[in-house]
């Protein structure tokens, strides 16, 4: 098997901290390659094609879904990982798994389920992604979940409240949640996926926002990061207008952010000089980072999108209907568990079973299920 050359501070597949249930190594794939393959073949991964970002599935065929977003994160992550001599397969595995726990209807679904689950421990999509890969997938005869490596699971658990970290650490002492209790960082590959997620999110929301007609390119020129690259594109290609100008602007924005991450991260790694991945984990701050200037520019773009796209009246109107769908479904399943599939209805923790079932739905299945149970057609 041809092995990728890694920097000493990269995660090393041959020295993984292992799986929760031991399995023999594969003859032709590294441990992280196996993880990536298990994620791609999972049911939860296939569902991402009908789970949306900002715009719901019925609003257009070309808007991003959780699946296309995850692929874009993986592509950006692998490009940067190769330049930094990190493990590309681990980056890809984490990128493809990071949204497996996302609800239907994007963040509206997350907020509603958290509200419904407040008396029962709450709901957080990032923790749900871990729950999917550790418990909810049922593909193997010897265990629940996908039995992924420590390093992949560590990367999937991007955020965690202290309360949840304590619960996880009680079951897995010194494991993937310990950094949230004791300070420290995940692997560089996990840090990279977190940043690639942000870069991809901003870029494709610019694209989808303009495509939807809710924001315009001229309006976006108020943001330094967009204006700089749009002006450069116009200078170099004066004939560019419309979609080609938008795409060229986004392409240049992405390239600038990728090169900035590579340069800033290289400088941080030279300064800190971590001897291995454990030295990376012991560091107090992420070593995969933007420069201070690019961080400020990225934050400004994020604020613009929040104010002008995510809070646009049309998006908010759709969000309100989505919230009604999920709130009604949770209430119905709670009061009448026979409406759940038997393997969910028979679980001892009914509220969590309801949340697991709803979180696994695609947008269109949730809409159909709501119409079946209530007779209402909200979309």
TrEMBL record:
SUPFAM superfamilies: HD-domain/PDEase-like (SSF109604). Residues 1-34 are annotated as: Disordered. It holds the Pfam family HD. The keyword Hydrolase applies. Residues 66-202 form the HD domain. InterPro entries: dGTPase, dGTPase-like, dNTPase_2, HD/PDEase_dom, HD_domain, PHydrolase_assoc_dom. Keywords: Hydrolase. It comes from the Bacteria. PROSITE patterns: HD. The keyword Cytoplasm does not apply. Belongs to the dGTPase family. Type 2 subfamily. NCBIfam families: dGTP_triPase, PRK01286.1-1. This is Deoxyguanosinetriphosphate triphosphohydrolase-like protein. The lineage of its organism: Bacteria, Pseudomonadati, Pseudomonadota, Betaproteobacteria, Burkholderiales.
């Amino acid at each position: 098997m041809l092995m990728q050359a890694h920097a000493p501070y990269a995660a090393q597949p041959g020295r993984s901290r292992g799986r929760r249930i031991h399995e023999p190594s594969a003859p032709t794939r590294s441990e992280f390659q196996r993880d990536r393959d298990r994620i791609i073949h999972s049911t939860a991964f296939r569902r991402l094609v009908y789970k949306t970002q900002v715009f719901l599935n019925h609003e257009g065929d070309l808007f991003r879904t959780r699946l296309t977003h995850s692929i874009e994160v993986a592509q950006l992550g692998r490009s940067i990982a190769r330049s930094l001599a990190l493990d590309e397969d681990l980056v890809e595995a984490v990128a493809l798994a990071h949204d497996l726990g996302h609800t239907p209807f994007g963040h509206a679904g997350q907020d509603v389920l958290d509200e419904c689950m407040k008396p029962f421990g709450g709901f957080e999509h990032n923790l749900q992604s871990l729950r999917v890969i550790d418990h909810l997938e049922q593909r193997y005869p010897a265990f629940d979940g996908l039995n992924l490596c420590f390093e992949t699971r560590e990367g999937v658990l991007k955020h965690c409240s202290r309360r949840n970290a304590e619960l996880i650490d009680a079951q897995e002492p010194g494991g993937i949640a310990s950094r949230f209790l004791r300070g420290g960082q995940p692997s560089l590959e996990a840090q990279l996926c977190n940043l690639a997620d942000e870069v991809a999110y901003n870029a494709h929301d610019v694209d989808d926002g303009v495509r939807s007609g809710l924001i315009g390119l001229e309006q976006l020129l108020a943001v330094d990061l967009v204006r700089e690259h749009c002006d450069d594109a116009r200078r170099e290609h004066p004939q560019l207008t419309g979609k080609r100008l938008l795409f060229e602007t986004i392409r240049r924005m992405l390239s600038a952010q990728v090169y900035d991450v590579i340069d800033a991260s290289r400088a941080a790694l030279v300064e800190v000089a971590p001897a291995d991945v454990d030295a990376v984990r012991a560091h107090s701050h992420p070593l995969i980072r933007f420069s201070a200037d690019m961080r400020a520019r990225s934050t400004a773009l994020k604020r613009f999108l929040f104010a002008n796209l995510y809070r646009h009246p049309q998006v908010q109107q759709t969000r309100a209907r989505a919230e009604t769908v999920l709130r009604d479904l949770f209430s119905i399943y709670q009061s009448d568990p026979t409406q759940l599939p038997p393997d969910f209805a028979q679980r001892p923790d009914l509220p969590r079973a309801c949340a697991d079932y709803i979180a696994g739905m695609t947008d269109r299945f949730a809409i159909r299920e709501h119409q079946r149970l209530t007779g209402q057609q909200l979309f």
